[in-house]
Task: structure prediction
Amino acid sequence: MSSTTLVALLSGPDQPGLVAKVSGYIYQHGGNIIHADQHRDPEENIFFQRIEWDPMKTPAGEAAKEFTEFARSLGMSARVADSSHRPRVAIMVSRFAHCFHDLILRWKAGELPAEIVAVVSNHPDLEAESRHYGLPFYHLPIDPAQKEASEDHQLEALRPHRPELVVMARYMQILSSSFLDKVGCPVINIHHSFLPAFAGGKPYHQAYRRGVKLIGATAHYATPVLDDGPIIQQDVVRVTHRHHIKELIRKGRQLEQAVLAQAVLWQLQNRILVYGNKTVVFD
Amino acid sequence: MSSTTLVALLSGPDQPGLVAKVSGYIYQHGGNIIHADQHRDPEENIFFQRIEWDPMKTPAGEAAKEFTEFARSLGMSARVADSSHRPRVAIMVSRFAHCFHDLILRWKAGELPAEIVAVVSNHPDLEAESRHYGLPFYHLPIDPAQKEASEDHQLEALRPHRPELVVMARYMQILSSSFLDKVGCPVINIHHSFLPAFAGGKPYHQAYRRGVKLIGATAHYATPVLDDGPIIQQDVVRVTHRHHIKELIRKGRQLEQAVLAQAVLWQLQNRILVYGNKTVVFD
Amino acid sequence: MSSTTLVALLSGPDQPGLVAKVSGYIYQHGGNIIHADQHRDPEENIFFQRIEWDPMKTPAGEAAKEFTEFARSLGMSARVADSSHRPRVAIMVSRFAHCFHDLILRWKAGELPAEIVAVVSNHPDLEAESRHYGLPFYHLPIDPAQKEASEDHQLEALRPHRPELVVMARYMQILSSSFLDKVGCPVINIHHSFLPAFAGGKPYHQAYRRGVKLIGATAHYATPVLDDGPIIQQDVVRVTHRHHIKELIRKGRQLEQAVLAQAVLWQLQNRILVYGNKTVVFD
Amino acid sequence: MSSTTLVALLSGPDQPGLVAKVSGYIYQHGGNIIHADQHRDPEENIFFQRIEWDPMKTPAGEAAKEFTEFARSLGMSARVADSSHRPRVAIMVSRFAHCFHDLILRWKAGELPAEIVAVVSNHPDLEAESRHYGLPFYHLPIDPAQKEASEDHQLEALRPHRPELVVMARYMQILSSSFLDKVGCPVINIHHSFLPAFAGGKPYHQAYRRGVKLIGATAHYATPVLDDGPIIQQDVVRVTHRHHIKELIRKGRQLEQAVLAQAVLWQLQNRILVYGNKTVVFD
Result:
C-alpha cells in the first residue's frame, strides 16, 4: 500500500448501479478500496457515498481529478481529498479559552490531521497563549456600527493563511452573511445548547430558568440564520436542581470542547455531506 | 425499627436554624431520621427539604399530623406521607401501548409502591389487555365539539377510584385547564421530545426534519399550557442520518418508557417538590 | 422495487476488488443495492461485508443460492437471508420476567421481524403469561444430577418449533457445550454486568461490594465458557453509594431489557458477523 | 454571610439523633447551615455526613477545631476544612500530556479551588510546558533496580511543596506501599479502563482483544494493590468494531481527562469519604 489514500464524498440523484459503477471504476484503475459507506435519502432520492481508496499510483492528484470527472459523468458531484493533505484551519475566538486550548492541544497531540494556521479574536486576551503555541494572533475588534468593515479586516487577516476551515471556538459574534460568502470555506460553530432548544444568547441561563434536566452543546455549520445551520454533532450532560448557572457553565465547557472537537475531526476526515439543512456523517 | 416510616416534603422561606429545628423536633419526639436532603434556591431564598424518619410510635398518622403543624409554625408548607400508604394511580392512554404495559409490568414486578386502579382511554384498543391485568377499563371517546362534556365523563369514571396520581401514558389528547383543576391530584405526562425543543405535535417528525443527532423524551407535570409544565425527568438517545422517522419512533419508545417510569417512581416516593415552573428532585 | 430484499453477510480473506466484484455481480444480475457496509480487520486481513439488495426478480430464493455460490468462488463464506423470512425464535427463561415480557411486547408492537414460537423454562411461573401471549410453554426443570438428560428434554421440546434463534432471557442455568452443539442455531444470552467485569453468579452483588460507579449489562453469544462468548452489545447506568443491591437490580432490569432487545434485533436483521471471540455489528 | 464557610466530613457508628445533634450544635453556636447530606450504610451501620456551614464568626479555624472535638464526643471522626483554604496539589506525570494539560487549564480557568504547586515526572518531556505554566518541574527517573531510592528522591522533591493531594495524571509507574505511607496525603490515580475489568498494563489493548462495545476510565485512590483502590468516578464511551486500538486511545484520552478532573474536583470540595474499599461521594 502506498502512503497516500484518496477520500471521495459523492452525492447526487440515486440510480441503479451506482455502487457497482463507482467501485468498478476504482478497481479497473488499479485502486484498492479501503473503506466505503453509503446512504440513500428515500424521500429526496439522493445517493450519498464516502469512499476511501489507495490509488496505487502517483501522482494521487491526477487520480483525484480523473475520479471527479468520472463522478460528474454519473450525474454526481464529488469532492476528493488526498489523505496526505493537511487542511489549513483558522480559529476565531473571543474570551472563553477552553475550546481554543482543547483544539490546539489535540492538534499538538497528533489527533487532528490539519495545520492550525492562525487565531483571530475580537479581544486581545489570548495573544500570549497563541504565540506560545507558535500561532499568529490577530486582535481585530468588532465595531458594531461598522460591522462590515470590521469583518473585512478579519477576512484580510485570514486571506494570506488560505484557510480551508474556520472554527468558531466560542467566538461570541455573529458572522454576517457577507462574511460567510467571502471566506470561501466551511465555518463550524459551537453553540452551548441542545439546538433547537435555547438558540440565541445566554443559553445556560435560558436552560436554568426552564429547569431542564440535561444541558447540551451543538456543533453546526454557520449559516446566515443564527444557530440554524446543519447540525454536525450534539451531546448532553445531566444536571439537577443543585447546579446553578455557574455549574452549568463549568459542566458545559467540557461538553462544548468534546462536541466541537468531534465535529472538526469529522470535517478534517472528510466524513460530512450537507444537504438541505441536514448532514450525513459517515462515522 | 417499626415497619412504617414517614416522608415529609417541606418548603418555605429560608431562615437560620431550619435543619436544626426540623431534625431536633423529630429527635425530641422519639423519631429516628433515616434520610434527609435539603436544597436552597439562592435567588428565591426558598428552603426545600425531604426528610424520612421512623416515628417509633403508632399511629404514624398522628405523628404526621403533628409534624405538619410544626412545619407550619416554622412558616413552611409540608406534605407528609406514610410509607405504608400505596397511592392510587390511574392511567390515561390512547393507542400506543408501550408506556401502558411498561408501567403495569413494573408495578406487578414490585417496582412501584402504588396501586394502579383504573385505565381511561379515548380508544377501545387496550380493553382486553387492561382486563387481563385485572384493571377496570373506561373507553371514553373525546368529542372535540364537546370537549368539556367528554372530559366530565372521564372525571366521573375516575372519581370512584379516588386517584392520587394520574399518568398520561402516551395519552394523545390535551387535558383542559378545567380537567386539571377538577381532577384533584397531580398529572404526569410524557412528551416524546427533549423539551423545550419540539413541543406540540409529531415531535419525531420535527426532529427528523431538523436533523438533530439526539432525540429525547421529557416527563413533566401537565399544566394548561401545552408541553410547558415543570420538568421532572429527561433523557436522550443518539440517532444518525440512517434513522428514518420509523426508527426514531422505535428508539423513542424505550426512552419514553424509561423516562416516564422514573418520573412516576420519584412521585410515588415523594421525591419531587415543584416551585414556579421547575422541580427539585431529591434523588 | 419488489417487496423482498436479500441481505448477505460475507467474510473471508481480503483481496483487491472485492467491493467492486460483489456490487458488480449484483448489478449485472439486475439487482439494486439498497445498503452496503464493509469492514476489514487489518491484523487478521479479513474482509467483512453486509449488503442488502432488491434482486428485482423472483424467486428470491434462487438469487440467494446463486449469490452464495458466487461468494464461494471469491473465497468468501456467505449467509444470505430473504427479508420476507421471519426467523423462528424460542425464549428460555427462569423466574425473572422482565426480559421475557419486554421481548414479547416488542414483537407484538411490530418491532422484531420474527416469529416467537415457544417458551422453555425450568420454572412453572410464566406458564399463564406465556399462554396469554398465545405461546406454547414448556416447564422442564433441570435436575443437576442428570443435566444432560434434562437438557435433552429441552431440545426435544424445541425441535418441532425449529428455532433459528434461542434467546436466554434471564435463563439462570448454564447451557452445556453439548446443548449448544445440538441446538443448531445461535443462542444469545444477557449477562447482568459489564463483561468481562463480574462474570459468574450474582454480578450486582459483586458490583456493590466493589463499589463501582456504573453497572452494566452485556448481550453475547452463548459459548461453552461461561460469560465469555462474543459480545454483541453492552450498556451501563450510573449508580451511587445510595443505591443498595435492591436498587442495582431494579436499575439493571431496564438495562438488561434494552441491551438484550438490541442484540436480538441486530441478529434478526442479519447485522452481526462473529470472528474469533469478537463481533462485527453493521449498525 | 461571611466569606468563609466550613465543610465537615463525618463518619462513625450510627446512633439515633446524630443529624439533630450535629445541626443543633451548629445552630447553637451561631452557625448557618448551607448544605447538608448524609448516608447510612445499613450493613456496616456507619453514618456518614457532609455538612457545610457559615460559622458567622472569626476565626473560622477555632470553630473548626471546636467542631472536631464535638464530633469526637459523639464517637465520630471528622475532617473539617475551611473554604478559603486552597489545597496544595502536586502532579505526577510520565509522557502522555493530556491529563496534565487538562488539569492545569481547568485550574487556570478557575475551575479547581486549589494551588497546583509542582510537577514530578520520570521523563523530561513536560519540563518546558510546566515552566510555561509557572510550575516547578522535577525530572526524577525511576531506576527499577533501586525503586525505593528513586521514590525517596521524589518524596524529597515533593516535601518542600507540602502537597495535600497528589494526582497521578497518567503517571505510568506503580507507587510502592512505602511511598504511599510516606507521602502523607491522598493520591488519586486515573486508570484507563472500567475497573475491575482490564486492570494492569495496556488496558486498551486488552479491551480491543476482548471485543467490548464500551471503553472506560476509572479514577481511584492509589493503594498498594495495583488498580484496586476505592473508586471515585468512572465513565465509558461507546466503541465499535471500526475503532482500532489507536482510536480507543484517542477516545480514551477525553474520557480520562473528564473522569480524573471530576474526581479531583470532588476531592478538593471535600465531598469524598472512604470506607473499606468504597467511597461515599456527596455530589
Observations:
- The helical segments of chain C are 18-28, 60-73, 98-108, 127-132, 147-158, 177-183, 203-210, 245-268.
